[in-house]
Specification:
alpha+beta; globular; three-stranded mixed beta sheet; three-stranded antiparallel beta sheet; CBS-domain; 134 residues
Length: 134
């Protein structure tokens, strides 16, 4: 019998093999892009979340809005109670896949300066959200 000395794995070593699927939160509230900013803010407060996944009419994830983004829109001079989420989404993305490594996702979040990424499957359906820990 040979003795083997075991050394604890570092947190960095554990994170190297992790994928987004290992760390993402469930999708949470998903709203349609025709929802107004006011209603979206109410949904956020009710759900006690800081972000919402936005889907189109066919149910595909087209983006993510944060409480900070909605509050900034509401404070803008061009705001009216008819502004819809589709009016403020801008470019689509970034998104990530559940098989993306955590290192790649972290790089994507830093590069795009976002605190949360929608996680979508190969068809564009929302699976969850990868968010920075607060």
């Amino acid at each position: 019998m040979t003795l083997v000395q075991m050394q604890p794995r570092t947190a960095n070593a554990i994170a190297v093999g992790r994928t987004v699927a290992d760390a993402m939160d469930t999708a949470g509230p998903q709203v349609c892009d025709d929802m107004t900013v006011e209603v979206a803010l109410s949904v956020m407060v009710s759900a006690r979340t800081g972000h919402l996944l936005v889907c189109d009419d066919s149910g595909l994830c087209i983006g993510l809005v944060t409480h900070a983004r909605l509050a900034a829109v509401r404070e803008g001079s061009a705001y009216s109670d008819r502004v819809r989420l589709r009016d403020i989404l801008g470019d689509l993305g970034p998104f990530t896949s559940p098989v993306t490594t955590m290192a790649e996702a972290g790089h994507m979040m830093r590069y795009n300066q976002v605190d949360a990424l929608p996680v979508v499957d190969e068809h564009g359906s929302a699976l969850g959200v990868l968010a920075l820990a607060r």
